[in-house]
Write a structure and sequence with these properties.
- By secondary structure, the protein is mainly α.
- The protein has one domain: Rhomboid-like fold, CATH 1.20.1540.
- It has helices at about 10-20, 25-45, 60-65, 70-75, 90-110, 115-135, 145-155, and strands spanning about 50, 55, 65-70, 140.
- β1 and β2 form a beta hairpin.
- α2 crosses α3, α5 runs parallel beside α7 and α6 (about 115-135) crosses α7.
- The radius of gyration is 17 Å and the shape is globular.
């Protein structure tokens, strides 16, 4: 009997073990690609700062639309209710959000479909940022955590 290791790459092994239902042409993968693209753009705009490992300059995050309740209210920049979801404060932040989105999002998308998952993701994102504007109006924030927690909440319920 021949006992060889399975013929799979590292990426295949991660996909098989962490998110076995992920499809490359799906909303979850699209969101991950948008997150990565926006992170690269935010790093390119004003370069890197040394606060965290591969952290974009805060001026880049402000330019691209981090959560700023004052600008939403006073300047009418309502797009800041959605754009913080696609921005990340460091490489570690991006990595954890991407992994969470892949693991949780791929399972939900497999069960409920791409359009429903996209709707849940965007509504959760908007709701979380609105909540943050109400209860922390002076703070700035970025990240997909609001959307991810919405997916977790749906999954748990």
């Amino acid at each position: 009997m021949d006992k060889r290791a399975r013929d799979e790459t590292l990426v295949d092994a991660v996909v098989i073990n962490l998110c076995p239902t992920v499809r490359w042409c799906s909303f979850t993968v699209f969101i991950v690609l948008v997150d990565i693209t926006m992170f690269i753009i935010s790093m390119w705009l004003n370069r890197i700062v040394n606060t965290d490992f591969l952290a974009p300059d805060p001026r880049s995050l402000d330019t691209l639309g981090w959560k700023d309740a004052k600008k939403i209210k006073n300047d009418g920049q309502v797009w800041r209710f959605i754009t913080p979801t696609f921005l990340h404060a460091s490489f570690v932040h991006l990595t954890l959000n991407v992994l969470s989105t892949l693991v949780i999002g791929s399972g939900l998308e497999n069960g409920m479909g791409g359009w429903k998952t996209a709707t849940l993701y965007m509504i959760s994102s908007f709701g979380g940022i609105l909540f943050s504007c109400v209860f922390n109006p002076t703070g700035f924030s970025v990240g997909a955590s609001t959307a991810i927690f919405g997916l977790i909440g749906y999954y748990v319920s």
